[in-house]
Amino acid sequence: MYYPDEVVEEIRQKNDIVDVVSGYVRLQKKGSNYFGLCPFHNEKSPSFSVTPSKQMYYCFGCGAGGNVFTFIMEYENYSFQEAIKHLADKAGITLPEIEYSEEAKTKESKRAKLLEINKEAAKYYYFQLRGQHGELGLDYLKDRGLSEETMHQFGLGYSLKYSDGLLRFLKGKGYSEEIIRDAGLANVDEKNGMYDKFWNRVMFPIQDINHRVIGFGGRVMGDGKPKYLNSPETLIFDKSRNLYGLNFARTARKNHMILCEGYMDVIALHQAGFTQAVASLGTAFTSGQANLLRRYTEEVLLTYDSDEAGIHAALRALPVLKEAGISGKVINLEPYKDPDEFIKNLGREEFDHRIRQAENSFFYELRMLEREYDLKDPDSKTKFYNEIAKKLCGFSEEVERENYIEATAEKYHIGFDNLRKLVTTYAAKTGMATQAFRPKSGIQSKSDPDAGSKRSQRLLLTWIADEPVVYKQIKSFISEEDFTTDLYKKVAEKLFADLKEAKMNPASIISMFTDEEEQREVASLFNTKVEQLETLQEKEKAFRDILLSVKTNSFEYYSSRLGADVSALTKVIEARKSLEELRKIPITLET
Predict the structure, then answer these.
(1) What's 244's DSSP letter?
(2) What are the two backbone dihedrals, phi and then psi, of residue 418, each rounded to the nearest 5 degrees?
(3) What angle in degrees, to the nearest 10, is found between the helix axes of 68-76 and 80-91?
(4) Could you give the CA distance from residue 519 to residue 503 in angstroms, rounded to a whole number?
(5) Which CATH number belongs to the domain containing residue 339 in this structure?
(6) How far is CA 11 from CA 15, 83, 418, in A?
(7) Which of 70-84, 356-370, 396-410, 531-545 has the lowest mean pLDDT?
(8) Is 180 within 8 Å of 186 (Cβ atoms)?
(9) What domain count does the chain have?
(10) What is the pTM of this model?
(11) What is the domain extent for residue 21?
C-alpha cells in the first residue's frame, strides 16, 4: 500500500518546504532559517522554524516537526498517502498505481464506497428539507432562528416520514443493501426487513476535518424517542475521535475552542460569529477528542447545559482536558440552559463578555462541590475545607500547587498558612503531592529513567545533522548499535549510510516513516537544542561529553543484557574497546 521510495523522494524534492509552509504560515527569514507563529498551537512569540538546508520544520514550543509530508498531514489531517497525492498534484507529478494487497485493496475500496454513499445520503436529505415534504423540518429550523445561509453551510436536511425513502433512493443509484447497512443508513429486522435508520428527523451531516460526510445525527420531529439519534460506528465513523463542527472551527484561529453538548449549540454559535465552537457526538467527551483538540488549541471553554446533567458532564470533561495538557474553563450561561437560548435572549456581545469571564476549571469544580456542604455549619465547613485540601494535592508541581493554595485561601477566607498546613497534613496521610525529584541536569528521570541517555543520543544526531563533517572524526567509534531506542537506531542507520556515501538529507529519512507521531519524533532528533558555546574548546569538550555519554550508555545497555541476548557479549566487548580508545584520543572540530 505504499508508493516506491524513489517516487516519494521525487515528490518531496519538488515541493520546497519553505514554499509549501508559506502557503499556510507567514514566515520571516532570520539567518539561514525561517520563523513564524506555529499553526499547531497558539503562541505570541514565533517558535516555529523552517530549515531549508534540512527541508524540515520544527516548533520548539509544542514539538511539532517533520518534513513537507508531515506538515501537510498535520495541517490538513491527511494520511501519508493523501499527503503524497496532494503534493504530487501540486508538483505536477503523475503517480503510479499503488500495489495493494488484496486485504488492503478491499478495505480501501470499502472506505471510498462508504464516503461516497454518505455523500449521496447527505444530498438526498438536503433536497428533502427543501422539497414539498420537508416543510415540517424547515419550519422547525427556522423557528430555531437559523438562516438559509447557515442551513446551507452545515448541509442540514430532513428524513421523510416514510421509512424507506432513502433506501429506495440509494438502491436506485445502484448501491447494494450490504453497503447501505454497513454505512449505518438502514436497519434490518425479521418483522420489517430493511428500512431507513432515520425517518421524520431533521438531519445533521457529521463531517470529518476534510469536510467529508462520515455519519449523521437526527433530531426527531414530535415526541418520538430517542430525541437525537446518531449513526452507528463504521469503518469511517469513530465517535470518540471526531468532533462536530471541527472542520470549520479549526480555521477560526482563535486562542481557544468552545466545547458544546449538541449540534444546535454549535450551529447557533457559528451563526452568531463564534466559529470556534465544536461538540462531541452524542457520547461523553473522550481522550481521543481531547487529543484532537490539542492540535489546534491549548485552551477549551465549556458551554455545557447549566442543568444537573450538564454540570456532571462538565465535571467529567475537565479532567480529560487536563490529562491531554489542555487548560479548561467553564462559561457561565445562567440564567439560561444552553448557548442557543443564551444568545437568543442576551445576544452576541453578552456571550462574548461571558467568554472573557470564563471560570477557571479548578474553581468551577470547587463551586460545584460547595453546593454539597452547609458552610454555616462548622463541621460541614471543615469537611469542605478537607475536600479542598484533597483536590489541591492533585497538583504535582510545587509552584502550581502553591499558587492555587494562595488563590483558594483568598477566595474562601481560610488563611494561606492554615490551608497549606491542611494540604501538607492530608498529603502526609495519603502519600499524595510528594515533591518531584529534580536532578541537577534538569532531566525528569522520575517519569523516564532513560531520559538522560535518550537526550544524549538526540543531541548527537542533531549535531551530526547540523555539522556532517564531524562524522569523519567519530565514524570509527560510533555505530547505529549505540542508539538503544529502536526509532533512534533506524534513523542513525540511515543517516550514517548516507554520510558514508557523502550525502545527507534528514527530510528523506523522515519519509521512511508513515506514522505521523513517528515523523514528529524523528524530526525532534534533528532539532534537539544544542547549547550555544562561545569558544571552539568549549564546543569540542561538549561534543566529546555527548559522544562519551552515548558510548557509556551503549556499554551499560548491552552489559545489562548479558545472558538474555546472545549477541550482547560481542557488543559489550566492542563498546568497551571503543570507549577506552575514545577516552584517550582528542576530538578536533573544524571552525
Answers:
(1) B
(2) -65, -45
(3) 110
(4) 21
(5) 3.40.1360.10
(6) 6, 10, 65
(7) 531-545
(8) yes
(9) 5
(10) 0.64
(11) 5-91
